[in-house]
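Revision sheet: structure tokens.
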Amino acid sequence: MIHVENLNFAYSKKKTVFNGLNLDIPTGGITGILGPNGAGKTTLLKLLTGLMFPKAGTISVMGDTPGDRLPRFLEELYYVPDEFMIPAIKGSRFAELYKPFYPRFDSAQFDRLLTDFEVEIDEKLNKTSLGQKKKFMVAFALATNCRLLVFDEPTNGMDIPAKNVFRKVAAGSLRDDQLMLISTHQVADISRLIDRVLIIDRGQVLLNSTTWDISQRYAFVTTGSADGALYAEEAPGGFRAVVPANGEQTEIDLELLFNARKNLK
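Predicted:
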């Protein structure tokens, strides 16, 4: 689905974001993109969706170069950024205007998703809260049934019930030929949703693995001693630690994994 080779990108001579980045993400499932502020997560999403252009290197997404912005590419891509301008129209009018661009748009699915999110389709979108706007846009994105769905901080502004709905509908809406990318700082919101983890720091990929592979390599434990740990943090009762799995399987602690990113082997 996504192949990036020797990618270079800089905003200026003093602000290089990527220098020789290589990345592969296969079709299928949900990939969580994690990284500290300034790591290049949003820049990467914009490069993958054709909103920015590499200075050098190649990007292939669904077999096309995103920067070419071919109609066949755009009708298979939906990107919901963290911040967006939304027109002063009702949700029903928004759907009427934009769903023709997406051949597999499912109006019945859209209605169900709006019901799940408790969003009224006849409300003026610019008059609603940030959380309501995000829920509407997520519902519309999922209903397009595009092969590539890209979300940047999708749960920002959502309350706890809405975040629960997001996890449920995101997990239940994907076909095998679709890929969903979620970039977020809210790791708890996606910890049980994703099946691949991509960690970026200082423009480099530190980890790009399925959750199954991670669970085979690392165990996430509470222990009385940090001896032998790849990474450890003080916690009630001792330490929360990342240790070699050695055959032991534990639930992945995504926040601990992220904090341990420089210590992973």
